[in-house]
Design goal:
Keywords: Pyridoxal phosphate. By secondary structure, this protein is an alpha/beta fold. It is 43% helix and 16% strand. Helix 2 links the parallel strand 1 and strand 2.
C-alpha cells in the first residue's frame, strides 16, 4: 500500500469511528448516514485511491477543477456531488458529470439546470441549499435561499423537467443567530425538512455537517455529511 493510500485509509477509519459513535449516541443505525468525501483541491489520483478504499460519494465545489477530474475518473463507480455556489454559465458543464447538485438556491438556476439536464439526457438530483443567515427573500453569505423561500423553490424543482428534488443542504452559518451553534442550525434544518416532506415525501435527503461539526449534524438527523479535511488533510492553498 502506498504511503498516501495508507494515510487516507487511516483517516477514513477515524472518520468512520466518529460517524459510528455519533450514530450510536443519537440512537441511529450507522447505515442511515452517508459519507461524502469533499475532494476539492486534491488530485484525481486521490479520488482513485478513495474509490479503492470503498468511497462512493465525492464532492467538488468549482467546475473548472471538477470537470477534468470527473472526466479522468469516469471509469470509477462514483456518485459526484456539486456543492459550491453555481453560476448559470457553468451549469451545462456541471450537469454533464454531477449526479446531485446540492447548492440550488434560485429559480433561474433551476431553469438552467433543467435545460442542461434535458439536453444531456440525464436526470439530476437537486438539493435546495438553505441559508440560515438570510432574511426573508435574501440569499445567504455562502449561498442558499432563506427558509421562507424553500417551499416555493421546491415547487419549481418538481415542475422542472430533468430534475429530481432530493432534499435540503445547509452550511453552518458564520454569522447571525446560529453563529457558533451548529447543532441549533442543523435542528432548524431538520424542522424545514420535516415540513418539506409533507408535500414532497421523497425529498428526504438532508446534507449537513463537515469535518468540524459532523457529530452535531448526525445528532440532529442528517442523512449525509460532507467531510474533506478530516479525510484528505489540510487543503493545499489555491494558486
Amino acid at each position: 500500500m502506498t504511503d498516501r493510500k495508507a494515510e487516507l485509509a487511516a483517516n477514513l477509519t477515524l472518520v468512520e469511528e466518529r460517524i459510528s459513535a455519533a450514530c450510536a449516541g443519537a440512537g441511529r443505525k450507522r447505515e442511515e448516514v452517508t459519507l461524502i468525501v469533499v475532494t476539492k483541491t486534491y488530485p484525481a489520483s486521490d479520488v482513485r485511491l478513495l474509490a479503492e478504499l470503498g468511497v462512493r460519494h465525492v464532492a467538488e465545489n468549482r467546475d473548472q477543477e471538477a470537470a477534468p477530474k470527473a472526466a479522468e475518473c469516469a471509469d470509477l463507480p462514483l456518485i459526484w456531488h456539486f456543492v459550491g455556489q453555481l453560476q448559470t454559465n457553468k451549469v451545462r458543464s456541471v450537469s454533464s458529470y454531477a449526479d446531485v447538485v446540492q447548492s440550488v438556491d434560485r429559480k433561474r438556476l433551476v431553469d438552467a439546470l433543467s435545460r442542461a439536464a434535458v439536453g444531456a439526457g440525464r436526470e439530476l438530483g437537486v438539493l435546495i441549499q438553505v441559508a440560515l443567515d438570510a432574511d426573508s427573500g435574501e440569499r445567504g453569505a455562502r449561498g442558499g435561499v432563506g427558509p421562507d423561500g424553500v417551499e416555493r423553490l421546491a415547487e419549481s424543482v418538481t415542475e422542472a423537467e430533468g430534475l429530481r428534488l432530493d432534499g435540503l443542504m445547509t452550511v453552518a452559518p458564520l454569522a447571525g443567530p446560529y453563529e457558533g451553534r451548529p447543532r441549533a442550525a442543523f435542528d432548524r434544518l431538520m424542522e424545514i425538512s420535516s415540513r418539506l416532506r409533507v408535500a414532497h415525501p421523497a425529498a428526504n435527503m438532508v446534507s449537513a455537517g463537515m469535518s468540524s461539526d459532523l457529530e452535531e449534524a448526525v445528532a440532529a438527523g442528517a442523512t449525509h455529511v460532507r467531510v474533506g479535511t478530516a479525510v484528505l488533510g489540510v487543503r493545499p492553498r489555491l494558486r
